[in-house]
Amino acid sequence: MSTPILELRNVNKSFGPIDVLNDISLKVDAGEVLCLLGDNGAGKSTLIKTLAGVYKPTTGEVLMDGKPVDFHGPRDAQQMGISTVHQFGGTFPLMSIGRSFFIGAEPTKGFWPFKIYDRRKANEIAVKAVQEFGITRIDDGDRLIGGLSGGERQSLAIARAVHFGARVLILDEPTAALGVKQASHVLRIVLEAKKRGIAVIFITHQVTHAMAVGDHFAVLIRGAVAANFRKGEKTREEITDLMAGGEALANLGAEVESYMAAHEGHPPPVTPN
């Protein structure tokens, strides 16, 4: 059995007296898409920030390649190969594609102290990286980011992360604000990243998109893993019910039925708040 690239073991995160993550245990392997599903307030954002090194777990362990790691900030996580792409791609509308692709790591030419930004090299690499992911409409590195569609921006951000050595790609609601065609572009790129052996953590509340790319699913409810299952083990309707707390409601209904059977059809008493 292979060692997961990234694993959480019994991770809890509290802010003062408030418990936000409760005993989270998850893992993702190379070439696998783990879909984290949950409604607003489920704890997805806190979990992302814990994986990305923004927050340190209150208790529990984060492991990479089977070894415990202690991130002191996002840069530590990035150096270990964890890259996060947020909902709008983290791109800059008034920057060119080439400049945005290399921001903070710009290629240069010439000799010190006369080094200058190598625009042609940056543009060539950026365009090639995006086109290798199947986004052939981007063919000019001088084009402004603001002229790209939402799906193209996401594609550019993902291609950038892969180019700079991402081993774990965390995608935060990458299809949330996109139309059907743009979302399909992003989903194709997720599958391409998976094909390249990258571990993808796909955070979403859109079950259809998750089912299109996911191998492994975890449903978060109130900061805890309510369900953890593989592809094909649950239907779309079952997953949707889980996200809405359906399993908890079903358990409550069973308890009520059991009580009524034991008490000659009388419902349980309501305790006033």
UniProtKB/TrEMBL annotation:
Pfam families, alphabetized: ABC_tran
Domain ABC transporter intervals: 6-247
Keywords, ordered alphabetically: ATP-binding, Nucleotide-binding
Record-level Gene Ontology MF annotations: ATP binding; ATP hydrolysis activity
Name of this chain's protein: ABC transporter ATP-binding protein
